[in-house]
Every structure is written in C-alpha cells, then in structure tokens.
Known about the structure:
Elements: E1 2-8, H1 12-21, E2 27-30, E3 47-48, H2 57-67, H3 74-82, H4 84-94, E4 100-101, E5 104-105, E6 107-108, E7 118-119, H5 125-139, E8 143-146, E9 149-157, E10 165-173, E11 176-187, H6 208-215, E12 220-221, E13 226-233, H7 245-249, E14 253-256, H8 275-285, E15 291-294, H9 300-306, H10 308-316, E16 326-335, E17 338-340, E18 352-354, E19 359-360, H11 373-387, E20 403-404, H12 409-429, H13 436-456, H14 462-483
Parallel strand pairs: 1-2, 1-11, 2-8, 11-18, 17-19
Antiparallel strand pairs: 3-7, 4-5, 6-7, 9-10, 10-11, 11-20, 12-17, 13-16, 14-15, 15-16
Helix pairs in contact: 1-5, 1-11, 2-3, 6-14, 9-10, 12-13, 12-14, 13-14
Bound molecules: flavin-adenine dinucleotide (FAD).
Amino acid sequence: MQTNFLVIGSGISGLNFALQAAKKGKVIIVTKKKLIDSNTNFAQGGIAAVLDQTDNFEKHVEDTLKAGAFHNNKKAVQFMVENSADAIYRLIDLGVEFQKENGKLSLTKEGGHSHRRIAFVGDYTGKEIERILVKRVKEHPNITILEDAFALKLLTQKKFLSKKTCIGSQIIRRNKIENIFADQTILSTGGVGQLFLQTTNPPIATADGIAMASQIGCKIKDMEFIQFHPTALNKNTFPKFLISETVRGEGAKLVNEKGEKFMENLHPLKDLAPRDIVAREIYKQQKTEEVFLDIRYKSREYLKKRFPQIYEKLKKLKIDMAKDLIPVTPAAHYLCGGIEVDLNGQTSVKNLFAFGEVTCTGVHGANRLASNSLLEALVFSNQVAKNLTPNQKIKQTKFETQKILRKNSKETLLTEKMKQEIKAIMWNYAGIIRNRKKIKKEAIPKMEQILKTLKKFSGTNQEIAEASNMSIASLLILKAAYKRKKPLGCHFVEK
Ligand SMILES: Cc1cc2nc3c(=O)[nH]c(=O)nc-3n(C[C@H](O)[C@H](O)[C@H](O)COP(=O)(O)OP(=O)(O)OC[C@H]3O[C@@H](n4cnc5c(N)ncnc54)[C@H](O)[C@@H]3O)c2cc1C
C-alpha cells in the first residue's frame, strides 16, 4: 500500500490532522483497535484556551510555565496559547457543541489556572470531540481507515551521505505483516499510562510510538516527567476511573478520614494546587488515612447536570456523590516528555512527524497544566497539516514481503506475565516518589532483563511487540529519572 500521509493513531491529534491533510492528498489512518479507542475518548474536563475578554495570553502562558516548573520551551507555550482560541473555533465548526450560557461559551477552572478558561462538554469533552472527528473522517473520500491495524515498526531508508528518512510503517493486520509506504509518516500514538500498575489510561496507551521512534534513532526528551493525577477513583476499576479536576474546580475539597481539609494550609491554590503537589500530599496522607473528595454541599440536580458521566459511574458503584464522600487515589495519567519535535512537528528523522501526547514540544515542561494536552494536540496537528504537502518521491518496493505471523502459546502467556512485571516495576520505582539509587541498582537491571527475554522470543505478534515497546519506553523513563538528580515538577526524588 502507498499513500501521501500515513497517520498512526486515531485520537484527537491524528483525526484532526487527517481531516485537514485529506484536502491535499490521500490519507491512511491505522489504529490498533477501533477508531474511538484512545486517551482522547476518556478526557473529561475540557480544553484550556484564552476565550474570555478578562483573560489574556500572558496569564495562560504564565500559568503553563509555573505548572511546568519553568522547564518549558517558552516559544512553544506562546505559540500554543496564541493559537488556542482558533483551535476551539475549528472544533466548533466541525460540530462540537461546547457548553454555553446565554449564547457565550461556559468556562470552567482546573488546578494551576489563574482564570476560568476551560471549554467543556459536560464531563465527557473528549468523548464528544472523538465522536465528531470520527464521524467526519468516516465521511471523507480521501481517507482510508484501517482499524485493528497495529503499527509494528517504522520503515526507513538511508542513501549514502543523506539523512535517514522514514518511508512508512510495517503493520500487523489480519494476522499478517504488511508494509504501508508514505510520503510522510505521522505518529499520533498517544501516551504511556499502561506502563504503570495504577493508571487512568485505557489499554491502548502502551508507548508504542515512543518505542518505535527510539528504535530508528529519533531523539526522545524529558521522559522522567510522568504526571500522576491526584484524584482517580479508589476502586478496583481498570483503568482507574478519573474524578475530573473540574470537580475540585467547582468547589470539591480533599479530606482525610478525620475530615481534615489537608490542602488548606499547604499551598496558596489549596485543592487546586498543581497536580504533582496534590498527588504527593495524597500519597503521604494515604500512609495512615484514606483520602476523599467532598462535594456534598452541591445539590443533586447540579451534580447530575454538571457531571453526568461521573454521577452515573459512581451511582453504579453505589456511591451517591450528593451524599457520600468519594474515595480517591493518585494514578499515572500523562507523559509530559516524548519524541522531540519542533513547532512544525518535525522529528529528528526526515519525513517523520509527530504530535499529541507522544511528543515533547516543550509546552508542558516538567509538569502539564490541566487541560493543556487536548489543546497541544490540536494546535500542533493544525500546524503540521498547514505545512505538509505530498511529495510523491517515495516509491519503495524493497520491504514488500508478506510474512505469516507465528504464534506460540507459551510465549503469549509469558508475555502477559512480563507486562504485569513491567507495570509493577514502574509503579514501585518510577512512581510518585522515586529513589535514584534503587532505580539504578534494581529497576534498570530488572527491566533490561525483561527486554532481553522478550527479544529471544521466536514469534512476533501484537502482544510481544507491545511488551517490548513497554520495556523500551520504561527504560527511557528509568534512565531519565536516574539522570535527573534534583526534584523538578512531577519528577520527585527522595534525598
Ligand atoms: C481519563 C483521562 C482524562 C483526561 N482529561 C483531559 C482533559 O480534560 N483535558 C485535556 O487536555 N487532556 C485530558 N487528558 C489527556 C488527553 O486526553 C490526551 O493527552 C490526549 O487525548 C492525547 O491525544 P493523542 O491524539 O495524542 O492520543 P490518543 O488520544 O491517546 O490516541 C492515540 C491513538 O494511537 C493509537 N495507537 C497507539 N499505538 C498504536 C500502534 N502501535 N498502532 C496503531 N495505533 C496505535 C491508539 O489506539 C489511539 O487511537 C485526559 C486523559 C485521560 C486518560
């Protein structure tokens, strides 16, 4: 197969790009499950943007830099913020109906924001955006959609003295390996939450894009900055169900078993302090106390209307948020680093572009400001779509062999066990509070051993590839966490 634009991943960034690129050439979207299976579909809170006359670019930039512990790329932050309103209006043009009051967009607040600037659709913003984008790409004649198609590796060529160039991807589909050649290949494969035992991310988030890119020599940056969301529901759901920060934005308080509002004197922003600070405090409290969210002072009617998804989910679990405390716990949520790209989504490999959670544009610095990730995904995918043109130069036949996959049931079982081991290692050593000595002496050797074992397996299938990707990305995180000696943002090391 050959195309102009090969988009790997069908979250907000991939679909948004595909729609615009399809005006210029042929697009193939490959996605490893169904189109809607993405982190995007789980996003609740909303998208931050400067939409109100009393707000301004400087304040949004300042909040983003503060949350990111000033480790951010300021130019990238400014670019994102200045393009934020346009990104929202584009979604509205596509059909996303953000909540309005008296004809004006309603705006909510989340941790670290000095202003109400988050556009939302109930508490299911991501689901609604994904629904509309999926509808639009399905309607487009220039877009071919390949579901249940797993990108296995990136194809490259290197002619004498020229730069390594990406020419497409090898995919697993219908139990076969196929090659898709493309003028430009775009990684929009999302995050890495599944590397951790406790996560809000769905099963697709196994770090495939980062592992694939690193295997062809792409520069990867800031992998130690994993954001742990403070308030995942403390119940046995897989993944952990998120209690959106907008619940605190609308007034919920964090309390311990004694009823103490423990964030009150800890930070000027109290319950809406940056996520790393809240997550660490909950983690500390949990050594002796269970931690809860309390929003019982709001009426049932209000809660049902403002947080319909959360209200119903809790009701199913026999928690009445109008009457009961909501048990919460931190969980791995977001990767601030990733594949290094410039403002045009260019990776360090020619003809390979990336945007969304898989990338490090530098906007998040050492910790992401709430609701900036959907925004980043939109702004940078818009930018890549604006600049890319089909170039029709790549005609490749060299890799075109179809292999039948071998399966080995013993290896498949072992692979599942190894995935669980990876998650446990990452949760214990690269979690909320880290110890560098233990990372070096214990976690890295254990992870290297897992990767070595996986490499010896005779078969190739999606499970083995995912487990390898997980261990490759885990090693990148562990090594980066070991290298960074001092705490910064969401990387917190014990003395
Ligand atoms: C519970 C939850 C709530 C959130 N709430 C918010 C919020 O309110 N505001 C906000 O700004 N952000 C929020 N986020 C973060 C935000 O949702 C993500 O950062 C964003 O959706 C990422 O979009 P993306 O396009 O980069 O990737 P994703 O939406 O994760 O999409 C990645 C795609 O790549 C595919 N893929 C991965 N690997 C392969 C492979 N090997 N082959 C083929 N396909 C592959 C996946 O199947 C998927 O389709 C939330 C995240 C979660 C988990």
